[in-house]
Amino acid sequence: MKKEEKPIIGIATHAHSSVDFDIHFNHCHAMTEWSRKWDMKMVGYKGLLAADARELACKVAIEQGCTHVFFLDADHFIPVETLDYLMESKDEAIVSG
Predict the structure, then answer these.
(1) φ, ψ for residue 81 (rounded to 5)?
(2) What contacts 29, CB < 8 A, 6 or more positions away?
(3) Measured between alpha carbons, how far is 73 from 14 in angstroms, rounded to an integer?
(4) Are 69 and 96 in contact (CB under 8 A)?
(5) From the CB of residue 9, how many other CB atoms can be counted at a distance below 10 Å?
(6) Rounded distance between C-alpha atoms, residue 96 and residue 88, angstroms
(7) CB of 32 within 8 A of CB of 92?
(8) What pTM, to 2 d.p., does this model score?
(9) What is the DSSP secondary-structure string of 5-66?
(10) Which of left, alpha, beta for 38 (phi over 0: left; psi -120 to 50: alpha)?
(11) What pLDDT digit, counting tens, does each position of 12-36 carry?
């Protein structure tokens, strides 16, 4: 990615079955806040094994022009600041937290 390009972040999530309401609401809140700062595209799948869903999500994110992919597990609460912290190292090949 060139320095002057704005990142496009693919938010990739999957759920094997249903999603808890509190976690869903947490994710909606986080994505609302992130969308104020970052260009994002949503990629999501239901009913696939985690590895299969993540592989498919990466392929779709690349096809949609995403420069980064953030895997957001459907069963984890996430602090709103998480994406900002990870993007501080946006030039690294892989960042985790």
Answers:
(1) -75, -10
(2) 80
(3) 7
(4) no
(5) 23
(6) 12
(7) no
(8) 0.83
(9) SPPEEEEEEEESS---HHHHHHHHHHHHHHHTTSEEEEEEEESS-HHHHHHHHHHHHHHTT-
(10) beta
(11) 988 878 889 999 999 999 999 999 9
